[in-house]
Amino acid sequence: MEDSPQFGLGRVFASARDLLLSPTEFYRSMPTSGGIANPLVFLLVMGVLSGLIGSVIALLGAGPLAGLGTGLAAVIFLPIALLIGGFIGAFILFVIWKLMGSALD
Asked: Among candidates 75, 87, 18, which has minimal Cα distance to 50?
């Protein structure tokens, strides 16, 4: 996912497609430095999409009222949990990277 000023939903979906269809090339071409905004937008959009898909599945399987509550919770809490989990996971990987004696600073 490249940093560019024209970052939008089309770019998010193109990045998701590239990630699914050719993950090796996606990670090879990913920049190693840059801002945090583009990855956060990508993570939030994927979280909202996951929540929407989960809510549709809940509506189909649990009935209208229970499915609506579950779906609403999924759309609201899943992106928040992904953001928090993303930062925690990045911190853990950073600590492991430093403990392994990385020479890159």
From this structure: 75
Q: Of the candidates 37, 47, 52, 40, which has an alpha carbon nearest to the alpha carbon of residue 79? A: 47
Indicate if the alpha-carbon torsion angle 48, 54, 57, 61 is positive or negative: negative
Q: Residue 48 and residue 74: Cα distance in Å, rounded? A: 8
Q: Which residue has the higher pLDDT, 91 or 59?
A: 91
Q: Which amino acid is at 73?
A: A
Q: What is the pTM of this model?
A: 0.66
Residues 6 or more apart whose CB falls under 8 angstroms from that of 3 comprise 31, 34, 35, 38
